[in-house]
Amino acid sequence: MNNTIKFGVVFCLWAGGLAACQTVAPPVQAPSVQLDLAAVQQRLDERQKAMTDVKSMVKTRVQAKEQNHTLKQVIAIQGNSSLRLDTLSMFGQPLGVLIAHQDRVLLYDVKSNRLYRDEEVWNIMYRTFKTVFNFGKYIRAFSGKIPRWEYLDLKTMRWDPETGNYRIEAEDTGRREKIEIEVDSQKILPVKVIQWKEGRQQAAITWRDYEEVEGRLFPHTITVERLTRGDALTMEFRNPKINAGIPEDSFQLNLVQNP
């Protein structure tokens, strides 16, 4: 037997042994007690109502087609209509404050000592990031809740053997759009929501890295991806506080008047 044949035999034996030793991922186990749609809806509804406010340090990544940015921020959310983002420098110095509150958007620029409103904010955001995110639209998403929950008509639910999660088909009755909701079947937590319109996926929200915070499970990584625009915004939470109470005046900026 020449060296070439010997090498081929040894290689085949080694490859065969390696393949035999490779572990096969065990099949996803179905939940010991499978809930029906009404029970899952009730659990999700209770969770939506239980989260009243959130405050945390966050690392925010803005991904656009032309460029990406990473920001160090502090986020504060109260209810379903108030959000505040304080942007900090690398050394923790304040750079600016963005507030989305009751359909208004304000941006205070510390360096220029100017207060911008609504359309001015969108213009600045686009010049900076080459995209615009209406944070007010995603207040619930960034507090770990499903947006527009009260408008969703949950139609059907099935257990997905590939992921081990429940998949719910729903309709946004206010917009006549199809919504898909993926729910952790063990802990009944929202994992992903996909928005459909005219047969195309429009946007997706994912909640990952759930950890216990003051007796409640909270996602420490939240991503909003706008598939039709090719951009995304991800927040990574660090030491979040839940339902600790946030003063109402935290969402007011009466600091300056534009010159």
Give a topology summary.
Elements: H1 3-21, H2 37-50, E1 53-63, E2 68-78, E3 82-88, E4 94-101, E5 104-109, E6 114-117, H3 119-129, H4 139-142, E7 152-159, E8 165-172, E9 177-184, E10 190-197, E11 200-213, E12 216-226, E13 231-242
Antiparallel strand pairs: 1-2, 1-13, 2-3, 3-4, 4-5, 5-6, 7-8, 8-9, 9-10, 10-11, 11-12, 12-13
Describe the structure.
With 259 residues, the chain is α+β, with helices and mostly antiparallel strands. It has a single domain, classed as outer membrane lipoprotein receptor (LolB), chain A (Clam). 19% of the residues lie in helices and 45% in strands. The protein has four helices and 13 strands. It has helices at residues 3-21, 37-50, 119-129, 139-142; strands spanning 53-63, 68-78, 82-88, 94-101, 104-109, 114-117, 152-159, 165-172, 177-184, 190-197, 200-213, 216-226, 231-242. It has a 13-stranded antiparallel β-sheet with strand order 6-5-4-3-2-1-13-12-11-10-9-8-7. It is globular. The termini are far apart.
